Amino acid sequence: MKPLAASALVLAATLALPAAAANDDALALVPADAAAVGVVHVADLRSSPLAARVFSDTDHLTVDGDAARFLAEARLNPKEDVDTVVAAGSPKGAGGSSGWGLVLFEGRFDPAALSAAIVERGAVKKSTPAGDYFLLPDKSATSSPSHEQGAIAFASKHLVIAGNESSVVAALAERSAGGTAFRTGAGLGGQLGRIDSGASAWALVDVTRLPVGERRKGLRASGTIDGKDVDGTARAGHDDPAMSLVSSMKNVSLLALQATARGDALKLSATGVVSDEETAGLMEDALRGVLAAWRLAAQEKSPETVSVLRKFTVARDGSTVSISGTLPGATVRALAEKKHAAVN
Fold first, then answer.
1. Are 227 and 235 in contact (CB under 8 A)?
2. 321/280 Cα distance (integer angstroms)
3. Buried (b) or exposed (e) across 284-305, using 16+ Cβ within 10 A?
4. Where are the alpha helices (DSSP H) in 103-254?
5. pTM summary value
6. pLDDT digits over 162-193, tens only?
């Protein structure tokens, strides 16, 4: 091929590309100011025997007439068509900033069928330069000025975006621009290194931005929190492991939670970042005390769980404290059966 012809082809291909490729990676659409982010890799769980218990509640949709009709009209099978669910949000800020919530679904979808099914149920189509979305019927009784209707966008055959209207509109714009800076370390994205790459489900929570964290900041000025010194030490019940744990939790600034399906078992891990090493030491001691108390209680009511609890470990690294362990398949099944019996 002659150089001129090759150059012309390259130029034509370049001009045909959009300014920024639309991003269907759900995690890449999480706003950098999220106070909490959670991810469930449904595809990972689907191949595990644990899936039958995790998805058991969705079976109730088949006996709900309208829900079943909607799924049929939308050509959607949640168990098979959804691969990943990402949820993110932030509460209303002390400075008056609005709270928001966003849920993104990755998988295989039929946008046309979904759109038709939701319009049939009263949704109203809206348009933005970055794409269309649907405003859902408002069934809320609230008349608060800050209240927003729910919205949903069937962004592509692989991505569905749901949440309050402003969040959905913003997510469409970010998708069109190539995504947010969350994956590259903005906001809670800077803590992604705390999550194992193979985790089936995980969550990151900025505790300081949740209502309990905001309340804690205000009460520190008075020198006490719930009748306790600001250092979190309980004057009453200080020797109680559970009370000590609750007290030390008031100094947690970040929580990282994760679960990994391994065959029929479930590996669990929780990590908390506190204000200083001394508080971390108190939390470490409290966690060990709680595990010991659980083992003692289990000896009478559920002796088979004692060996399971004994394998859970508590570790501390500077101002970070973590607890981890694995629930064997038999234990998971037993817990699921107890939940089922309680519901019925």
1. yes
2. 6
3. bbbbbbbbeebbeebeeeeeeb
4. 111-119, 165-177, 211-220, 241-249
5. 0.81
6. 999 999 999 999 999 999 999 999 999 999 99
